[in-house]
Design brief:
7 strands; binds FE2/S2 (inorganic) cluster; alpha+beta; about 240 residues; binds iron/sulfur cluster; 10 helices; single chain
């Protein structure tokens, strides 16, 4: 459908103590929020800082807060979020702002490392493949969370991260769960200890915002519930 008119777009400028700046942007059919940001940067203010790469929902780098909710901007059509011909675009919440719409993701990925989010196997290239049947219960549980692309949308949506900045957060815990349920992984005990502390899975209040917002349809809440069960059983047995 042909679209006409002008959008009023408020965009965050500067660092954490910055402010919104308003830009007029022409509307057109099938316009995404990323198209809007790109138009502003190319036609109105080349100093605007933002990130994107794939434009098709694969890299996760274009995540921003749109009208108060975190989203992939490349997969969000203006028609879906516009209110009274206006949109507000801000950097992701719960992460330090470097400039404008660009956040510092280091703490987010450091937490993956703290949650022992790397696979540790025992086989070498000379061994046969370790097969995990697709129908097995563990495989189904790992598969449910494996498509995470590390976009930070769930992390930005989580209020517990806001109140408790040390909390590992939904993405790192979801990653830990995919490894706890991976039969090939050999670091289960170490990982369960890593996610059991005050900043780990038991800090989750099961608010579900992460699950409601994940563009990949992943439920970090379900994975965290699994970690709560497994850590409790593990610690009871091993102290
Ligand atoms: S769980 Fe979903 S929202 Fe969270 S980082 Fe992964 S893909 Fe993004
Ligand atoms: S379910 Fe847990 S991790 Fe997800 S948003 Fe709520 S408190 Fe955060
Ligand atoms: S630009 Fe890659 S997910 Fe949006």
């Amino acid at each position: 459908m042909q679209r006409h008119g002008t959008l009023s777009v408020r965009v965050w400028r500067g660092s954490a103590d910055g402010a919104f700046q308003e830009f007029p942007v022409p509307r057109h059919a099938s316009q995404t929020v990323l198209d809007v940001v790109t138009y502003i940067q190319r036609a109105l203010d080349p100093t605007l800082a933002y990130r994107f790469a794939c434009r098709v929902g694969m890299c996760g780098s274009c995540a921003m807060n749109v009208n108060g909710a975190p989203r992939w901007t490349c997969r969000t059509h203006v028609d879906k979020v516009v209110r009274n011909d206006a949109i507000e675009i801000a950097p992701l919440r719960n992460l330090p702002v470097i400039r404008d719409l660009v956040t510092d993701m280091r703490e987010f990925f450091d937490k993956w490392a703290r949650a022992k989010g790397s696979f540790e196997g025992s086989r070498t290239r000379h061994d046969p493949f370790h097969e995990v049947p697709p129908g097995s219960e563990n495989r189904k549980q790992a598969d449910a969370g494996i498509e995470c692309i590390g976009c930070g949308v769930c992390y930005s949506a989580c209020d517990v991260v806001k109140w408790n900045p040390g909390y590992l957060g939904p993405a790192a815990l979801n990653r830990a769960w995919t490894l706890v349920t991976d039969e090939r992984d050999t670091a289960r005990a170490e990982r369960l200890r890593a996610v059991a502390g005050d900043a780990g899975c038991h800090a989750c209040h099961t608010h579900m915002e992460c699950t409601e917002r994940c563009p990949k349809g992943i439920s970090p809440t379900a994975g965290i519930a699994g970690l709560k069960r497994e850590t409790a059983a593990f610690l009871m047995k091993n102290g």
